Amino acid sequence: MVGDGCTDDSERVVAAAGDDRFRWLNLPHNSGTPSRPRNEGLSRARGRYIAYLGHDDLWFPRHLEGLVRCAGESGCDFAYSLGAAVGRAGMASVFSLPGSRFELGGGYSPSNWLHRRELVEATGLWSEKAAVSGDLEFLNRVFKHRAVRRFHDELTVLKFPAACWKFYSLAAGADLPQAPYLESMKADAPALRAKLLQEAAARALRYAGGPGIKPGPAAKALGYIRYFLRIHAYQHWPLNRLSRRRYRRRAGLD
Question: Of 10, 95, 101, 237, which cross-links 107 as Cys (Cβ 3.0–4.6 Å)?
């Protein structure tokens, strides 16, 4: 586990687990990007597979077991599962649905990825120069390398987007949104998974306007624009500066 200049009690929490497999490393200064701590973790990794977990995300029980089995049975380089983004009003969206060239588009998060350690040797480490959307930049290199990808068809990750919750401006002692979901996982993980998938289906139906109704021209045009920007513009001026500034403001960093 790598801290990015953490000033809280993360080290004590890791030590309290009492398991030598959990190791803690805290960078001396905050790097301003998750790429640096990820690269530090990769430099120390010794296992066959690499999996990521953001500090504000949750894995369902057996998340790793499912992805490792998927990778082992298929022989793929990169396995991923279904994720759910949770906002203040509940389920916000699901992400990483397969089906297109940009199959991890429509939202993405490394917390539901698993890849062979050798893949990084071929694609390179995480870019520490990416001003915004470093996850997308890494993912693009995975596609360009033509890594074999497989989808593990189960909801196994909950993501709590910082921009929805303003995590970085929460006062000390504030109630964190992950707590009730974690308790629900412990009590009955299948029931929570079913509830979230039902909410996702209802949301998708509302967005589509009902059974058999396709999105209108405006929605299609907006989708194409977002697709183009993701591929061609997120790492280039001025969009990179604007996106980074917007994210930091919404996440409570500025």
Answer: 95
Residue ranges of domains in the chain: 47-251
Q: What is the pLDDT of residues 45-65, one digit of tens each?
A: 999 999 999 988 999 999 999
| Contacts for 142 with CB less than 8 Å, ≥ 6 apart | 78, 115, 119, 123, 149
Residue 211 is classified by DSSP as: T
Nearest to 81 by CA among 102, 55, 62, 100: 62
Torsion sign across C-alpha atoms 113, 96, 180, 69: negative
Which is nearest to 53 in space by CA: 174, 152, 147, 160?
160
Any idea which architecture 47-251 has in CATH? Alpha-Beta Complex (3.90)
Q: pLDDT category, 151, cuts 50, 70, 90?
A: very high
Total residues belonging to the chain = 254
Give dist(CA 181, CA 21) in Å, integer.
Answer: 26
